[in-house]
Design a protein that fits this description.
123 residues; mainly beta; four-stranded antiparallel beta sheet; elongated
Amino acid sequence: QVQLVESGGGSVQPGGSLRLSCAASGSDFTIQDMAWYRQGPGKEREKLATIFKNGNTEYADSVKGRFAISRDNAKNTVSLQMNSLKPEDTAVYYCNADVIVMNTTPWRFLSLWGQGTLVTVSS
């Protein structure tokens, strides 16, 4: 069974920085695209950033220039460096990964989610 586990949330003052990490664990799998989402109070889940298997990235306008997504394919991790945080960045942040599980016939294609980590930006 493949799982995603997030870490790195917390509280920070406006203008501060946080780094979120997400690690995939399990066996006999390979990860395709990875992404970060967030869901603020009373809001729909919003896609923030995607990093493709080839390393290309895409960002939502709301975080472009402030957030940076990166991945380590050898460690099966994805990170989100968040700078210049604003109160409106307060949300639960989720990582997402498209995973191919290869220990079954046929292979299984899964879209997995982390458990979510709370980021609070407040003075």
